[in-house]
């Protein structure tokens, strides 16, 4: 008997979006001394709700387990992401007249990668972050942090002791929330009557168009179209009045929300434009979602074909970057140390660890200069230009870069 239900509308879930088999939690890196303990594997099977069309995973690990004190994702190790954050701060301050009398709150503030730029302008901020490892780093930057998961209960506690938020920010957090109703209800409660919410998250339409199946992992409970997120926010009295398409994370949306009763902010033409695009692309029809799985299976075969060919030619292969998306892909394709000698990552919190599931060792980037591999596979393909620029010296030994998404290919120098 099926007891799976949509986390938004409670409709029973039957329809598969894509089944990526069994996979460990993508950021559950393994310490070498614990190698014999390995990882726990869970189904990585995404469903689409036939009622509200929310694409979602079942919950196997709690957020408390996933975002533990040993959480290893630090936002500040990507230069392009820091630039993105700084550009956003300049824009939003100017657009909404955010100043010294304003209150800015960021949910899932990570290591303070964004709020630090408000601090530089003497604007009052508050970060909310449950993972101790990154919260410590944010506090070291002078950012006050509430170490908790966000929801309606926390929103009420915050309102009882401080002003509501004039600007409420959530970057790449909406997908991480198992109880989406409680989360959005909390947003409504914490927002000042003329305040603005901005949320960024990967765009489901672009995920499908770009074959970005590797962005599906257990930390991401939900995958949003603009159609669906508009429905969710509307249920709780929040209106989406503007939207931007962003290049980050392979193509994201930044939505702007207000209280539905706030008439001071007109609905942008971008809202209707994006809704029209999603209808034209068929995101309102179940059949559109049913074709994605076939594309993913085909890509898996192509990835394995390329790796087998390269290994048969005697090539040494390593990976650059140890992101969550890379761990999804490697585990789904069954790629381990029989193909990759190692991966490197700029984050010292990942160096010296083993990748979840595949147990491929992680080194610092300078290990590449020591071993001079023939092939460097860029796992965070969304910042491949940044990595190619940083690692251009592999030309010295005729090294080549490879990416797997949207299809596996060798990048031309």
From TrEMBL:
GO molecular function, one term: methyltransferase activity
Methyltransferase putative zinc binding domain sequence ranges: 6-67
UniProt-listed SUPFAM superfamilies: S-adenosyl-L-methionine-dependent methyltransferases (SSF53335)
Residue ranges annotated for the C-methyltransferase domain, each copy included: 247-406
Keywords: Methyltransferase, Transferase
GO biological process terms, semicolon-separated: methylation
Source organism superkingdom: Bacteria
Protein name: Class I SAM-dependent methyltransferase
């Amino acid at each position: 008997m099926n007891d799976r239900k949509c986390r938004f509308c409670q409709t029973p879930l039957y329809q598969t979006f894509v089944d990526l088999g069994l996979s460990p939690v993508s950021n559950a890196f393994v310490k070498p001394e614990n190698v014999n303990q390995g990882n726990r594997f869970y189904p990585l099977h995404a469903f689409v709700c036939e009622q509200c069309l929310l694409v979602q995973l079942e919950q196997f690990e709690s957020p408390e387990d996933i975002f533990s004190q040993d959480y290893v994702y630090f936002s500040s190790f990507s230069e392009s992401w820091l630039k993105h954050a700084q550009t956003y701060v300049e824009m939003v301050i100017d657009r909404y007249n955010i100043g010294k009398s304003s209150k800015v709150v960021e949910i899932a503030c990570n290591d303070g990668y964004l709020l630090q730029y408000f601090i530089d302008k003497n604007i009052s901020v508050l970060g909310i972050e449950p993972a101790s490892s990154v919260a410590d780093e944010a506090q070291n930057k002078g950012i006050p942090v509430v170490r908790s998961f966000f929801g309606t209960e926390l929103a009420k506690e915050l309102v009882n002791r401080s002003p509501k938020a004039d600007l409420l920010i959530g970057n790449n957090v909406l997908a991480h929330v198992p109880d989406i109703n409680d989360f959005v209800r909390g947003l409504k409660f914490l927002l000042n009557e003329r305040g603005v919410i901005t949320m960024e998250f990967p765009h489901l339409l672009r995920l499908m168009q770009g074959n970005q199946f590797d962005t599906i992992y257990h930390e991401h409970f939900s995958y949003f179209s603009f159609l669906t997120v508009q429905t969710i926010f509307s249920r709780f009295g929040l209106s989406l009045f503007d939207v931007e398409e962003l290049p980050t994370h392979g193509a994201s949306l930044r939505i702007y929300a207000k209280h539905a009763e706030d008439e001071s902010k007109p609905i942008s033409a971008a809202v209707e434009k994006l809704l029209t695009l999603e209808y034209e692309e068929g995101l309102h029809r179940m059949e559109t979602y049913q074709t994605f799985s076939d594309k993913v299976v085909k890509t898996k075969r192509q990835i394995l074909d390329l790796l087998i060919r390269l290994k048969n030619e005697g090539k040494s292969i390593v990976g650059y970057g140890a992101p969550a998306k890379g761990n999804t892909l490697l585990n789904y394709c069954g790629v381990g140390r029989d193909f990759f000698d190692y991966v490197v990552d700029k984050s010292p919190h990942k160096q010296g660890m083993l990748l979840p599931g595949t147990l491929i060792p992680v080194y610092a980037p300078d290990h590449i200069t020591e071993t001079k591999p023939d092939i460097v596979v860029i796992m965070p393909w969304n910042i491949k230009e940044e990595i190619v620029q940083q690692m251009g010296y592999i030309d010295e030994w005729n090294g080549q870069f490879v990416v797997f998404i949207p299809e596996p290919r060798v990048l031309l120098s």
